[in-house]
Amino acid sequence: MLLRGGAIVDGLGLARARRPGASDGDLARGPARLAKALGVPLAANGSDLLAPPFSLRVPRSPLEHASGPRTGISGAGGASSFPWRFWLPGESGVSPYRRHPKSH
User: Fold this and answer.
1) Cα Rg of the chain (Å, integer)
2) By three-state DSSP, how is residue 70 classified?
3) What are the alphabetically sorted keywords of the record (predicted)?
4) Residue 17 region, left (φ>0) first, then alpha (ψ -120 to 50), else beta?
5) Of 14, 27, 42, 64, whose CB count within 10 A is highest?
6) Does residue 45 lie in a domain region?
7) How many domains does the chain have?
């Protein structure tokens, strides 16, 4: 699972301390902000956040979600062929989709 953003629902004070000056809506918006708000160091890249020493909790049952293309992914394995972006409708933690400019 690749986490690209989220919303802080528990430990808001700690996340604010880790990202001073950020608005609550921006605390975990995007991958770097999410990692900093959760206290995940760069050295943990590729680690299982559901296993110790981390304790990320996820719901036991599937949630209704939306999907769409990832920014900057095109060609045979990306864009509309494979909707690699998943989010919970109405959640503020997901970054807005920005169409990747075509390069020549």
Assistant:
1) 15
2) coil
3) DNA damage, DNA repair, Hydrolase
4) alpha
5) 27
6) yes
7) 1
pLDDT score for 43: 92
Query: Across all residues in the chain, what is the average pLDDT?
Result: 79
Inside any domain, residue 81 = yes
27 assigned to some structural domain: yes
Residue 42 in tokens? 């760069």
Does pTM top 0.70 for this prediction? no
Which position has the token pair 């304790």?
55
Q: Beta strand 85-87 with 66-68: parallel, antiparallel or unpaired?
A: antiparallel
- Kindly state whether residue 50 falls inside one of the protein's structural domains: yes
Per-residue pLDDT reduced to its tens digit, 66-104: 887 766 666 666 666 667 777 778 776 666 666 656 655
Q: Which one-letter DSSP state was computed for residue 31?
A: H
Taking residue 6's Cβ as centre, other Cβ atoms within 10 Å add up to 22
Do 16 and 33 touch, CB atoms closer than 8 A? no
Domain extent for 59: 12-87
Q: Is there a contact between 94 and 70 (Cβ–Cβ < 8 Å)? A: no
